[in-house]
Design goal:
By secondary structure, this protein is an alpha/beta fold. It has 15 helices and 15 strands. The protein starts with a helix and ends in a 17-residue tail after the last strand. Bound molecules: nicotinamide-adenine-dinucleotide.
């Protein structure tokens, strides 16, 4: 079954590539593939690259995908990654050399966020299609550079918003598309990071705005993309507050790294990387090449992101979204709700995969219905992110031409619209003023998200 789909895909994709347009759905522009298996190269061999896009592709998708090169600017890390992934392709520290020698059809971009645009723009110029991790990039200038490069290249960029793929989120999208709540008028989205999860961000490059764009962008991109997709509109204006508490300069002491810290005995955030074999091999053993300290201090003065975020987003279709992202409660999960002309749909997601299903609650508007509130069960599936990761990867690699009725596959436009909310929120925090999304790039927000016609 999988092989048949692959052959169909090979036959169809060449023809589809000619009609490329910059639209929200990446399936509009199927990639041109010339060899039997898709020749991919991975750029950025950190923990994400090594796992989902490395070892997982080699172990589970090698009928469809051939890993032809690995690239990372850290020579030690890329060599360790090759061994961990279990592939026999050459490794590179230079993108140009990788593309020239290995001729990949597609680059998979899993570098730190601040480098995505460099790899994407150059990769497109060199004739590669792109599959990139979120966030697409971290500021509006880099976003515009990607928009321009994609238009010019006629190549395809897929942004891997795996948050769209868990079956229970597909269920929410389906119910909203069916008009369960009528026209959406407003929405609420409160996202909670556990204390440990927030500390993980502070420990790494994510703690520095110039590297991860702040959590407004790095983490918010997932949430804003989900909101845009569910509301089916594009953001118009954003106003926000945010602040940093507990971490960075708020700490009473600090050290160079957890391993070499005089305060480790009394620090609530002490984290021992020497007990994490894979992470130790990947990062600590290769620290001398680029100074990447994986067990960095959560109280270092360089931390300039926020720990508490609150925003109001006005959409081009008139919907207001109230959003918050905090690590104030030691709880991981979220509440999301849509108020519409015919009722309200609520979803509470907690515990990341601890239950086999999620319950959605629909409260009909009593003016239109005498039915009581209804509980709708939405099942999870096996695999990462409640079954979303394998569904997303199958769509990309196994059956790219399979219809996408919920519009789950995302391209540059969706990638940009999600980060622009975060970028606008960050700017609003700095300036104290609302930010107009249309002022950030040359994309004009549309009341209804553009999709393949
Ligand atoms: N979708 C998800 O759920 C999800 C989950 C985790 C991470 N991610 C994303 O995946 C990406 C990687 O995250 P990670 O946790 O593996 O980070 P990481 O820091 O562990 O790995 C990034 C790698 O990129 C390399 N790198 C940085 N700049 C480079 C450049 N210019 N050229 C070549 N290599 C470069 C670094 O040396 C490092 O090995 C990030 O963009 C992150 O947002 C997504």
């Amino acid at each position: 079954m999988k092989k048949m789909n692959r052959r169909q895909f090979m036959a169809n994709t060449g023809a589809a590539a000619g009609g490329a347009l910059l639209l929200g759905s990446a399936s509009v522009k199927a990639a041109t593939r010339s060899s039997k298996r898709l020749r991919v190269a991975l750029v950025g061999t950190g923990v994400r690259g090594c796992s989902l896009w490395g070892r997982n592709l080699v172990e589970n998708y090698s009928d469809y995908v051939q890993m032809v090169g690995l690239c990372d600017h850290n020579p030690g890390r890329v060599n360790y990654a090759k061994q961990y992934i279990g592939c026999d392709c050459p490794v590179f520290t230079d993108l140009e050399e990788l593309v020239r020698k290995q001729k990949p059809e597609t680059l998979i971009v899993t570098t730190e966020d601040s480098a995505h645009h460099k790899i994407i723009v150059r990769g497109l110029e060199l004739g590669c299609n792109i599959i990139t991790e979120k966030p697409l990039t971290i500021d509006e200038k880099k976003a515009q550079a990607i928009i321009d490069a994609e238009r010019k290249s006629g190549k395809n960029v897929i942004v891997t918003f795996n948050y769209r793929y868990p079956p229970y989120r597909a269920k929410i999208k389906e119910l909203l598309m069916q008009g369960l709540v009528g026209e959406i008028t407003s929405a609420e989205f409160q996202y909670y990071l556990s204390d440990g999860h927030l500390a993980e961000y502070m420990r790494r490059w994510h703690g520095e705005a110039c590297r991860g764009g702040t959590l407004w962008v790095h983490k918010g991109t997932h949430h804003f993309d989900m909101a845009n997709w569910f509301i089916d509109s594009e953001p118009k204006e954003v106003f926000a507050y945010a602040t940093l508490e507990r971490f960075g300069s708020n700490g009473a002491f600090r050290g160079k790294s957890c391993r070499n810290c005089a305060h480790s005995g009394k620090c609530a955030y002490f984290w021992d990387i020497t007990k994490k074999e894979h992470l130790y091999n990947l990062y600590t053993k290769n620290e001398q090449y680029d100074g990447y300290v994986r067990d960095n201090c959560v109280f270092r003065h360089q931390i300039d992101i926020f720990s508490k975020h609150s925003a109001v987003i006005k959409y081009a279709n008139g919907v207001y979204l109230n959003y918050s992202l905090t690590g104030d409660s030691d709880y991981e999960g979220y509440w999301i709700a849509f108020n519409g002309t015919r009722g309200r749909l609520e979803a509470r997601i907690e515990g990341f995969g601890s239950k086999e299903y999620n319950e959605l609650v629909f409260i009909p508007n009593s003016r239109f219905s005498d039915k009581p509130a209804q509980i709708i069960k939405a099942e999870h599936q096996p695999g990462g992110h409640w079954g979303g990761d394998p569904i997303m990867l199958d769509k990309i690699f196994v059956h790219p031409d399979k219809p996408d009725p919920l519009g789950q596959q995302a391209g540059v436009r969706d990638g940009v619209m999600s980060i622009l909310i975060g970028i606008a929120a960050r700017t609003s925090v700095y300036t104290g003023k609302p930010v107009n999304i249309a002022d950030l790039t040359d994309l004009t927000p549309m009341a209804k998200r553009p999709v393949k016609s």
